Amino acid sequence: MERFDIDRFNKRCNSLSNVSNKNRNMAFDRFEWPKDIDENEWWYPRELLTVYGSDYYDENNIEQLIKLSKAEMVNQFSLNIHNERILINEILMQIENGNLSAEACDYLHHFVEEENQHMWYFNKFCRKYYGKVYGMKSASIGKSDFAEISNYLVFARIYIFEEVGDFINREVSKHQGVNELVRNINKAHIEEESRHISFGKAYLQHKGEELLATLKLESKDALKNSINSYMRLMVESSYNPSSYKDSGYSNCLKMRSDLIEFNDRNGRNKKFVQSPSKFFEKIGVI
Ligand SMILES: [Fe+2]
Ligand SMILES: [Fe+2]
């Protein structure tokens, strides 16, 4: 595999900053916000529903499935809001700690500006049409005594979360059966996230080469475990007992564990983290 040295990394940062500069799409006036949305519209494709294909999926109870499609889209938007807020804070700290190149810092300011707009439209949608944003369990990725590993994990976490989001955005945005505003929001998010993901991969490959050359075997294993656990956490966060409860299901904790197990067995859970898994394997980190 071709090496990703600092010059190549800085060049990637510069070109991403240029594209962000040229495509300054202010989200604040990008969408039409109707007064309300028809109750019978789907917000999340049925094939993406966590219940799809399981005993909890009942075609005859279409109203409940539509309710769940709203709740599960709002759950994904809510996860974006919480994760983006946490990650913006961490990125600003990384800029301040002085370990990044000037080129990387420049790009990360664009990154923060873009995430701020995403949080605005996700928040607006959830509160206007659903009346709330779901909470999120605190999601910390293992911190290490080694600053280099902790810093690496900050960017690993951002990258994993963005790849999972990108998979969902792409599935929702191409689904004709889903409400148009929901599709447009998912589509808008793909455009900027593809640059964030490109930055993440460049950073993780470049820093990964440096790290792997210096770490002892047990630290490499700890890094690998942290990354695998965060991918698992991202998969499991799609299963929210509160969204089951709001859609009229009962025994929601059991439902959650049944569905996680069901989708582990049929291989659906793996699809959400297929891209980051392949990437980390390719660069030798997991
Ligand atoms: Fe975003
Ligand atoms: Fe992002």
UniProtKB/TrEMBL annotation:
Highest taxon above the source species: Bacteria
InterPro entries named among the record's database cross-references: AurF/CmlI (IPR025859), Ferritin-like_SF (IPR009078), RNR-like (IPR012348)
UniProt GO molecular function: oxidoreductase activity
Protein name: AurF domain containing protein
